[in-house]
């Protein structure tokens, strides 16, 4: 065997050795499902409540199926970390949904939003609900809304719609704010495309689903009153 043949054989042996190392690594990486790797197998403090909300067997113990269901809910609403853990934020979001559902067609049953103002838009921060009423008669809603987060809360009190812009562009946040109706400084009703239950919340505006924001645009006018009350969970 000449020098060239010996060198070529050595290189081939090295290449074969590298290949034998790489193949098992590739197989191992490919065999580990990303979701399983990121799943939190710990039983959360709100395990039973979350299981019941999701229609899972209520045994108070985290399972792989529980984790998958919780992760799906978290991904849908932008709850992070998306680990399938039944923690406080996930349950807080679900509990808000339950309160919204319980409101039914009588969101102002307690009479907190004024019924002596004629046409008025009510915003309940506690339940993250809004509706429009005329006197005591419900005109639209209730609908879920996404209000200000901790530090930029939607301000409470009696307000009035003072400026409307159907295709508003915020130069402050550099974002589109369709169907914007301003009622308190820079705070307004306007549509967004994200989930209404996406935490932690807005910069103070009352975010709405596009169809609801459009309905508010058609029902409200400058001078119509807005009443904001309650306290958003987590603020």
CATH topology of the largest domain: L,D-transpeptidase catalytic domain-like
CATH homologous superfamily classification of the largest domain: L,D-transpeptidase catalytic domain-like
Fraction in helix: 25-40%
Structural class: alpha+beta
> Which assembly state applies to the chains in this document?
single chain
Describe, in plain words, how this protein is organized in 3D.
The protein has six helices and nine strands. With 235 residues, it is of the alpha+beta class. It folds into two domains: 3-98, no CATH class; 105-229, L,D-transpeptidase catalytic domain-like (Beta Barrel). The protein is globular and about 55 Å long. Residues 1-37 have low confidence and may be disordered.
Short description:
With 235 residues, the chain is of the alpha+beta class.
Topology record:
Elements: H1 3-31, H2 34-38, H3 47-54, H4 64-77, H5 88-103, E1 119-124, E2 129-134, E3 137-144, E4 157-160, E5 163-170, E6 175-184, E7 187-191, E8 206-208, H6 210-219, E9 225-229
Parallel strand pairs: 1-9, 7-8
Antiparallel strand pairs: 1-2, 2-3, 4-9, 5-6, 6-7
What key attributes describe this structure?
signal; Murein L,D-transpeptidase; L,D-transpeptidase catalytic domain-like; four-stranded mixed beta sheet; transferase activity; 235 residues; cell shape
């Amino acid at each position: 065997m000449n020098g060239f043949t010996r060198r070529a054989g050595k290189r081939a042996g090295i290449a074969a050795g590298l290949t034998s190392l790489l193949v098992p690594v590739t197989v191992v990486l490919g065999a580990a499902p990303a979701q399983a790797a990121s799943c939190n197998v710990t039983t959360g403090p709100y395990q039973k409540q979350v299981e019941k909300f999701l229609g899972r067997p209520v045994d108070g113990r985290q399972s792989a199926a529980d984790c998958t269901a919780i992760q799906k809910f978290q991904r849908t609403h932008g709850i992070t970390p998306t680990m399938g853990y039944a923690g406080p934020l996930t349950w807080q979001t679900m509990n808000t949904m339950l309160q919204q559902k319980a409101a039914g067609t009588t969101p102002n049953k307690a009479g907190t939003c004024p019924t002596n103002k004629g046409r008025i838009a009510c915003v309940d921060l506690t339940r993250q609900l809004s509706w429009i009423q005329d006197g005591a008669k419900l005109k639209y809603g209730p609908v879920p809304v996404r209000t200000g987060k901790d530090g930029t809360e939607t301000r409470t009190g009696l307000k009035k719609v003072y400026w409307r812009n159907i295709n508003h562009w915020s130069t402050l946040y550099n974002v589109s704010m369709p169907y914007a109706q301003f009622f308190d400084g820079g705070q307004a009703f306007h549509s967004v495309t994200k989930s209404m239950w996406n935490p932690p919340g807005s910069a103070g505006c009352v975010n709405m689903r596009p169809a609801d924001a459009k309905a508010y645009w058609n029902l409200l006018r400058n001078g119509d009153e807005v009443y904001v009350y309650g306290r958003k969970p987590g603020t």
